[in-house]
Amino acid sequence: MQTTGDISAMRKIVRALSRPLGFVPTMGALHAGHMRLVDVAREECASVAASIFVNPMQFGAGEDFAKYPRDVAGDSTKFVGAGVDVLFVPDVGAGAGAKAVAEADTMYPPGFSTTVDIGAMGMVFEGALRPGHFAGVATVVTKLLHIVQPDVLYLGQKDAQQTAVLRKVVRDLAFATEVRIVPTVREADGLALSSRNAYLNAHERSAAPDLYRALLSIRDALAIGAKKEDAIAAAHLAEGFELEYFDIVDADTFESLENLRAPAFIIGAARLGATRLIDNIWIAA
Ligand code: AMP
What we know:
The structure is a single chain. The chain is α/β, with parallel strands linked by helices. It has helices at about 5-15, 30-45, 70-80, 95-100, 125-130, 135-150, 160-170, 200-205, 210-225, 230-235; strands at about 1-5, 20-25, 45-50, 85-90, 150-155, 180, 240-250, 265-270, 275-285. It has 2 domains: about 1-180, Rossmann fold; about 195-280, Pantoate--beta-alanine Ligase, Chain: A,domain 2 (2-Layer Sandwich). It binds adenosine monophosphate.
């Protein structure tokens, strides 16, 4: 596996790779969910590129940018084992904290000011609770796509709104990239794998699968004809959870649906102690 932190070097490496080229962008702290994306890319493409970048622009003030788990050495070993051809780890400046890093690195050079605004879809649910989050995601992924020029972009269903936002960016701005959404990888008890699960203490970890169970209960209630508000009102979360939202949304627009109409996501987000958990269930057409 070749590894670089430099944009020109990365462009040169990817130009020499066999096509089709699959691309898996990540923030590192790799788990089996990330590795599933790599495995699917490996099966479907002649070459695979990955990136690790904890993107300061998608973290809000007071979020976990500084303490987000980082293990580039361990992650590299995992990517090598999975057959990744090239890893892009953009060089970052020496500054401390989101602002200093943002002003001093490869992805955000001095004077950087051009951003991607996806409109209303970036303002609801995760976008409402994390202002600026999707502008950060859309901007960094746009830049990564320009650098890597992949044929296929691999994204996890775990971040459902992110998949809708990035499919929209690719469509609206005519990227020559296909988007593939890979189903969520879960622990045996149903908890969706997430780098942030590392923040959960033992008690929280045992309660955490409740979010997925609640989503399943909403799905099952809707399937037997319950109204949306009744299905959501009946969903139960263990003590210690603070619900942020449950809803049913159109899979393409992320508009809230009164009646389930596939393709859709049943989405949920809740705080458990200091950790935010999000999850969803895909309702296929
Ligand atoms: P992150 O490192 O959190 O930015 O995630 C990188 C990619 O991995 C995104 O496309 C995520 O949606 C995806 N991903 C994260 N968790 C999972 C999971 N449990 N199953 C499948 N994909 C995931």
